[in-house]
Structures are given as C-alpha cells and as structure tokens.
Amino acid sequence: MSQVTREAIHQMAKDKSGELVQLVSDIIRIPSENPTGTQRDVVNFVEQYLRDAGIAYEEVCSNPDFPCVLAKMGSDEGFSIILNGHLDVVPAGDRSQWDFDPFCGTVTDKHILGRGTSDMKAGVAGLLFAMKILKESGAELKGNIRLHLVSDEESGGEYGSTWLCENGYADHADACLIAEPTSSNDIEIGQKGGLHIVLKAAGKSAHGSLGGFKGDNAILKMAKILDKLPQLTTIEGHFKESQMHALENSIRSTEEKVGEPGSGEVIRHVSANVGIIQGGTRPNMVPDYCEAIVDVRLPIGVDHQEIEDMMAKIVADSGVDGISYEMHWKSEGNYTDEDAVIVQTVKKNAEAIWNLEVVPAYQWASSDARAYRAKGIPTIQYGPANTEGIHSYNENVDIEDVVNAGQIYVLSLCDMLGIE
C-alpha cells in the first residue's frame, strides 16, 4: 500500500468539514450536566461513533456514574500522543436566561448553539473527527494516538483524567493535546495551581441583646482576618527567563479578555477569593463559630511554604485569638516548555490555518492539564471557543473555529506521527 500524503489527508478533512459541524450539533443535543445529570447517553454516543469509524475502544471507570472512554490507533513504537477531552458540561441553570434551548444544537450561518459548544464538546468532536479522518485515510502512523475522553471534569476530575493518570493509563506518553477552549491565537502551555483555605473562628455565645458587652462574636473575629487576606495577592510567581515570553503574552491576552485594567497581573500574582462564609445560629445569639472558605490560585513557581508563611503572618498580625485554618491543596502551578514538540507543532499549523500569529500563554484558571503535566508529559490546551458564553448563558461556538480546529488537529497529528 502506498503511503497517503499529509496534503491528501488535509484535503479529506476540508471536504468532510460538514460532518464535523454535524457531529458537534449531535453531541450538544445530548445533555450531560455535571453534577446534576447523567453521562451515560453521551458516552454511548461516542462509543457508537468510534465503532462506526472502526476504531477500537474500551470503557474504564472508578465510579460507574463517570465512565471514561479510551481508544488507541497506531503501533506501540514511536511517538505517543494523548488526545484528551471531557464530555460533561456545567448545568444549564435558569432556562429563562437563555435565548434558545441550551441543548438545541442549532446550526446557524455562523454559529453552533448550546451548552457545551465551547466547553468543550466542539473540541471533543474535533478530536474524534481527526481520528476518524486518519483511520479512513489508511495512513501508517509512526507512533500512536491514545484517546482519553472523560465524563468528570467540571466537578474536579477525581473520576476522570486524574484517575486515569494515577492508574497508569497515561504512562509512556510523549505529549498530550487537550481540546479545552482557548482563543484561536493562544496555545495554553501552563496554568495556575490552587488550594482551598478553610478559616475557622471560635468565639463565645451569649444573648444577642448583650452583643458587644458579653460573649465573643466569631463573625467579627473572622471579618478582621478576611480584611487582611489581600496580602496573599502580593505574592508573585517565580518565572524562568525562558518563560518570560509566554508570561508577557499571557498578561496582555488576559487584560484583553477580562477587559479590566490591571487584570493581566492575575497571571503573575496569587489570587484569593472568599467564596463561602458560614456562621451564627440566630440573629439574637452572639455567634460562637464562623467558617470561611477561600479559593486561592497560585502562579507558576509559588510553593506551599510561601502560602503557609503568609497565612501565619496574617493571623499573627491580626491580633485575633481563636483563629485556625486548614489548607486543602489541589495542585501547584504547572507548565510545558515553549519549545516542546507539541507546542511548536500546533503553533505552526494553527498559524498556517488562521494566517495569524499564535502565541503560547499561561491560564489564570486550572484544568485536567495539571494531571498530565504532573506525570512529566508535555501538555497543551487548544480548542474552539467563544469564551464569553462559557459557564454562562447563550453558549455558542463559531463554525469557522470548529472547522479550523479540526484541520489543525489533523495536520498536527500527521506531523508528529511521521505522515509527510
């Protein structure tokens, strides 16, 4: 059999772009809300798609409510790349806030509409489409493609990518491409780490009519601590010289996306958000206990000890007694080097398809990428998206973005797996 060429495969992808758009629409029509819904129907759909494409797959799980779909193409020798995506979506929420049915999957002249279009069923469809195109081409792969589709990401990934990585399913991989939403001109090569700080204030109860004269108000004690928490944001990341280019890209890009002056500094600094406060029993009782949960995100290079030291200083400087705290660590900041094969390959093809400069950048949030990077696997995120609708109402994705992403995936796989 003569080896099919890269250009011929690219032409196949272009000719079949309508199939990709339809695939996105079909997946959107299958609700897969997490944590309020079920993942079974969308998993069944993906498995049928793989069967129809002649791609062998298996289903694995640590929790039957959150199955993972794995598939593999190619040989055991050569370059091994993981394609990762999640099938779950955040709940649609208040339907009255939507201008259309969140699970309509409607295709307009420019957009595909519905919950999960950007985060991240369009990306998942692109990965499936790329594998099917390569399978239909009959191309000989000098390596292998390993598909990891998970149904638990929006609730933390305990039963999804994290579990796969912890149980050997990502071993011996040379790269990982996650089709999470990004801008067309950004490749995500790193992200912030995170932890939750649970602050506890102990007071002494008394009748509310004696407040300020008797008892010890735990809520007021907590307020004094929370007032000093912005000190955490003075901690800066520690970036290597080789990371300064991506850092500058990230600061500029973040400011453009968020639209607030100075918001780009969130990439360089620790962020701290007091998300939950609970305290007191009744209005007429002096509260003897208050608890607050603080979401903290860590820039690259910040370690646990820096946070521990700052929290100890905040509590000591407050002069408030009866304060304790627990730190629940999720991950530290993680990154892939800009010169990694996966970064440069996707960058080259994205620039060729979009005809614009595509820059490596860091993300202010976090995702499943941390699980693969923790195993030393060079990992990027690049996927179709209109970011303004993500985790909000009226989510949609541009058809052009979807079609281009599918071609970028196909071309990048060809390059990394020796198809010329």
Quick summary:
The protein has 11 helices and 15 strands.
Task: Compile the SSE list and pairings.
Blueprint: H1 6-15, H2 17-28, H3 40-53, E1 57-60, E2 68-74, E3 79-86, E4 111-113, H4 117-137, E5 143-150, H5 161-166, E6 175-178, E7 186-191, E8 193-202, H6 218-226, H7 244-258, E9 271-279, E10 289-298, H8 304-318, E11 323-331, E12 334-335, H9 341-354, E13 359-363, H10 369-373, E14 379-381, E15 396-398, H11 399-416
Parallel strand pairs: 3-5, 3-6, 6-14, 7-13
Antiparallel strand pairs: 1-2, 2-5, 4-15, 7-12, 8-10, 8-11, 9-10
Helix pairs in contact: 1-4, 1-11, 2-4, 2-11, 3-4, 4-11, 9-11
What does this structure look like?
The chain has helices at residues 6-15, 17-28, 40-53, 117-137, 161-166, 218-226, 244-258, 304-318, 341-354, 369-373, 399-416; strands at 57-60, 68-74, 79-86, 111-113, 143-150, 175-178, 186-191, 193-202, 271-279, 289-298, 323-331, 334-335, 359-363, 379-381, 396-398. The two termini are 15 Å apart. It contains 11 helices and 15 strands. It is an alpha/beta fold. A 6-stranded mixed sheet has the order 1-2-5-3-6-14. Helices cover 33% and strands 22% of the residues.
